[in-house]
Amino acid sequence: MTRNKPLRWAALMAGATAALISASATAQSTKLKVGLMLPYTGTFAALGVAIENGFRLHLDEQGGKLGGREIEFVKVDDESDPAKATDNVNKLIKRDNVDVIVGTVHSGVAMAMARAAKDSGTLLIVPNAGAGAVTGPMCAPNIFRSSFTNWQPGYATGEAVAKRGHKKVATITWKYAAGDEMVAGFKEAFEKSGGQVVKELNLPFPNVEFQALLTDIAATKPDAVFAFFAGGGAVKFVKDYAAAGLKKNIPLYGTGFLTDGTLEAQGADADGLLTALHYGDALGTPRDNAFRLAYAKTYKLQPDVYAVQGYDAAQMLGIGLAAVKGDVSKKKEFAAALEKAKIDSPRGPFTISKSHNPVQDMYLRQVSGKENKVIGVASKSLADPGRGCRM
Ligand code: BEZ
Question: In what order do the strands lie in the sheet with 69-77?
Fold first, then answer.
C-alpha cells in the first residue's frame, strides 16, 4: 500500500494537469464574450454607434477573431445615465458573464463601470469617457483606455489659446466630470502662460438651453470662449453661438469634441473654429487613409474620433489576447503586453502609460467645409499625469 503511494500521487497529478489543460483549451475554443456598454439613445447616441462601428471594423479586418478567439457581443444601451450605470454593468458581469467590457462615452457612467471592473476583476477597455479617476485613483491592472483623459485635450487647447495671444477667457460646459475636468485642464495650461479665466459658466448635462449663458458671455466680453460639448449638444451650442451674433466678435475654441462627428449638422456655423484633439481629418498618413477608406466603404459614413477610439479598443484587446493566447484570465501577462505595445492607430502611433492611458499627440484643427483639418500639433506626446494612480 505504502509503496504504491507515490505512483497514485503521480497519476492524480497527471489527471489534474490534463483536466486543467483541457479546461483552458475549452475556454479558448469557446467564443470570447464582449459586453458593449455604450449610449445608443440620447445626445451621445451617434458616439456610441461610431465606437461600435470602429470596433467591428478592426474585428472584420482580423477575420472575426482576436487572439485566436471568435467574439460574441452582448449589448447594453447605457443612455449616458449614471443613475443606471451600476445596474447595467452588473448585468453584464453577473448575469451575462462577459469576459471583457468595452464602454463607455459618459464620464459619470464610466466611473461606475470602473468601480465594478475593479471589484470583480473583469477586463475593462474604455473607448471614450475621459474621467481622470478611471486611470487615476481608480486605476487597476485590468482597466485600460483607448481614448484620452479629459485633462489631455483641455490642456492642449489651453496651450493653443494662450499662444494665440488671448488673455481673458470665459468657459462654458455641462456640469459633470468631463466638463469640469476639461475646463480644469484648459485653465492649468492657459493660466500657466499668463492668461486668466474670467468666468466659468455651466448647465446640467444634457441640457441645451444655452440662451441665458450666451447673454452672460455677451455682457462679460471676454477675449475668447472655451467650450466642451459633444454629440447633439455640441451641434446645438455651435449653432446657437453663431445665431446669438457672438461668433464674429468673440472667437470660440473648444476641445475637438465640439466639432467632431457634428459638422454635417453644424454647417457654416462651425466654419473656422479651432479645436485641439488626438485625431483630425486629412492627417494624410497611409495608415489613416487606409482606415478612412475601409470605414467609408463599410458604413457609407466618414469616421470620426469616436470611430478611431472603438477601432483602437479592438486593437488593444487583440494585442493583449495574442500575448495570452486567448486566455483572458492571464491578467498580468495581458497587461504587460499592452504596457510595452506601440499601438498602430489611425491617429498616429501611441503607447500606454503606467496608469493605462494613451500617451499621444494632440493636434490643432480648424474647421474647413466638412472637415476638422489638422493644421499643427498642439502638444506633442502628451501624457496624462495619472494623479492618484497606485498600481
Ligand atoms: C465624457 O463624458 O467623458 C465625454 C463625453 C463625450 C465626449 C468626450 C468626453
Answer: 65-66, 69-77, 32-38, 100-102, 123-126, 143-145
Give the distance (Å) from ligand 1 centre to CA of residue 176: 10
Grid cell for residue 172: 462654458
In the reported structure, the alpha carbon of residue 178 is separated from the centroid of ligand 1 by a whole-number distance in angstroms of 6
Radius of gyration for the chain, computed over Cα atoms and rounded to the nearest angstrom: 23
Q: pTM of the full predicted structure?
A: 0.93
Q: Name the superfamily (CATH) of residues 29-148+284-356.
A: Response regulator (3.40.50.2300)
Distance CA 234, CA 213 (A): 15
- Answer for the pair 31, 69: CB distance below 8 angstroms, yes or no: yes
Tens of each residue's pLDDT in the chain, 391 residues: 344 554 454 444 455 444 444 445 545 669 999 999 999 999 999 999 999 999 999 999 999 999 999 999 999 999 999 999 999 999 999 999 999 999 999 999 999 999 999 999 999 999 999 999 999 999 999 999 999 999 999 999 999 999 999 999 999 999 999 999 999 999 999 999 999 999 999 999 999 999 999 999 999 999 999 999 999 999 999 999 999 999 999 999 999 999 999 999 999 999 999 999 999 998 999 999 999 999 999 999 999 999 999 999 999 999 999 999 999 999 999 999 999 999 999 999 999 999 999 999 999 999 999 999 999 999 999 999 999 999 8
Residue 296 grid coordinates: 467609408
Q: How far is the CA of 30 from the centre of ligand 1 (A)?
A: 34
| CATH class name, domain 151-277 | alpha beta
Residues of the chain with CATH 3.40.50.2300: 29-148+284-356, 151-277
DSSP string, 253-297: EEEGGGTTT-HHHHGGGGTT-EEEES--B----HHHHHHHHHHHH
Per the CB < 8 A criterion, the answer to whether 238 and 260 are in contact is no
Ligand 1 binding pocket includes 305 (Cβ within 6 Å): no
Q: Is any atom of ligand 1 closer than 6 Å to the C-beta of 130?
A: yes
By most ligand atoms within 8 Å of CB, the mutation choice from 38, 106, 176, 202 for ligand 1 is 106
